[in-house]
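Technical appendix A lists one of the benchmark inputs used to test multi-chain prediction within the project. The record comprises two sequence entries:
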Amino acid sequence: MVHVLYFAWLRERAGQAEEHLALPPGVATVGALAAWLQGRDAAGAAVFGDLAVIRAAVNQGFAAPDTPVKDGDEIAFFPPVTGG
Amino acid sequence: MITIRVQTEDFQLAAEMAALTAGRGDVGGIGCFIGVVRDNPAHPLAALSLEHYPGMTEQAMTAIATEAARRWDLVGCTLLHRVGRLPVGANIVLVLAAAPHRQAALDATGFLIDWLKTKAPFWKQEFFADGSSRWIEARAADDDAASRWQ
C-alpha cells in the first residue's frame, strides 16, 4: 500500500485529503501513478486534468515525474507552492 | 541557533528577537522580514487561508535555514509561518537573520523569504468579501526571485 495525500485545490477536486491504495501493477514512478489516478475515475480526471501544473513529493521530499515510488511510500500531490 | 515554527497564533517580534540573540555577544545586526495579508482594492478581501503539509513543511523550512547558515556567517535565524484563516493586516510570516555583520544579515533575510515562498509546501486561498474564493497561483516573479540565489 501507498499513502497518497492531496493538498489545496487538488484536495478539493479529489473530494478527500488522503487515501491508501495498492500500487497498481506497472506503476513505478510518480508520473505513472498520477496518470493512473487520472484515468481511475471522474475525481481523478478533475485532479490530474493538467499534469503540467501539479507538483509532487515522495516521503516528504520534492519529487519529479520520474521519481520512483514503491510500497510503503507517502506520495503527495499539490499545486505549485504559494507560501511566504 | 535555528528556530522553525508553523503556528496558527500570531508572533511577537520583540520576543522572537530576544530569543534569537539571548546570551550572544557576537550579534552585530538582525535582518527582519514580516509578510502581511494585503487587501485587494479591486476585489476586497475578507481573509486569507493558509494550508500546509505537516511534517514536510518543517523539514523544508529546516533545509532552507540550514542552507542560509551554510552560505552566510550567521549567529542564527528564525522562520515562523502562520497557517489557518488570517484577516487583512494579519502577520503571515516572520524571517529573522542575526549575524556579526549587516550584509550577511540582510542577504540571508532576502534569501530565506525568497526560498520560503518557492520551496516550502504552503498554499494560500483568498476569501473575498463578496463570498467568492480562489487559490492563489504561483508567480513566475517568485521563481525569478528565488533563482537569484542559485
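The first strand of chain A starts at residue 2 and ends at 6. The radius of gyration of chain A is 12 Å. Comparable benchmark entries are summarised in Table A2.
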